[in-house]
Design goal:
2 domains, Rossmann fold, globular, 17% strand, 44% helix, 9 helices, Arc Repressor Mutant, subunit A
Length: 214
């Protein structure tokens, strides 16, 4: 049986559902209706029901959603019931900030290694993970189960490094370099262009200011 194709818009909303449900759990909320959830997330109740129906529903008429059950099931849909080994390539300011984000482990993303070309960083550890040199990367990937690599390196270096990572078994790349990567079929990639995000924010701010002036 062919797997149902889910729209990108729905997939993008799933982490938001997961985050809000996690907050509800922390506040000991046992159940919630689609209407109550919609008020918290600024998404219509109808949209929430449609989104969740893509995966089987999970709700009960007259009761709503069991928060813990829905949180667990969305976590499974997102693959968060598994553990993924992850490395960071690029140990500059941004790479080190990323490595210091302790919430990764709570979501199942286990930081296994950090790599750079700067010999001055040898011997430095971030949350117990040592920074290693790039010439150690190939051996490391042969010996350590790693599925995900985050790239926080200059855009001129990113394409070749990405190819080297894929050749050594990396299956997913979280790319912070300001360039798009041309990767083989079967390799998952997500480009996070910070400058583009800031430009979208600038556009929204400009549009809002123009509306206020009219």
């Amino acid at each position: 049986m062919a797997q149902k194709e889910i729209s990108l818009a729905v997939i993008k909303r799933l982490p938001r559902y997961y985050r809000y449900l996690g907050e509800l759990l922390e506040n000991d909320v046992v159940r919630i209706s689609s209407k109550e959830l919609s008020e918290k997330m600024n998404v219509t109740a109808s949209q929430i029901r449609q989104d969740l129906n893509n995966f089987g529903g999970f709700g009960q008429q007259g009761y709503g959603y069991n928060v813990e059950y829905l949180y667990t099931e969305i976590g499974k849909i997102l693959g968060l019931d598994q553990k993924y080994g992850m490395i960071i390539v690029g140990a500059g300011n941004f790479g080190q900030a990323l490595a210091n984000y302790s919430d990764f482990e709570r979501r199942g993303f286990v930081l296994k290694g950090i790599f750079d070309v700067n010999p001055a960083l040898v011997g430095i550890s971030i949350r117990g993970v040592p920074i290693m040199m790039m010439d150690e990367l190939e051996r490391f990937l042969k010996e350590t189960p790693v599925q995900i690599a985050a790239l926080t390196i200059p855009k001129t270096k990113a394409p070749q490094v990405a190819q080297d990572l894929v050749r050594n078994g990396i299956k997913a790349i979280w790319n912070f370099a300001p360039t798009d990567l041309n990767l083989p079929e079967g390799v998952v990639s997500l480009n996070v262009h910070l400058a583009e995000s800031l430009m979208r924010l600038s556009y929204s701010l400009k549009t809002q200011e123009e509306c206020e002036e009219e």
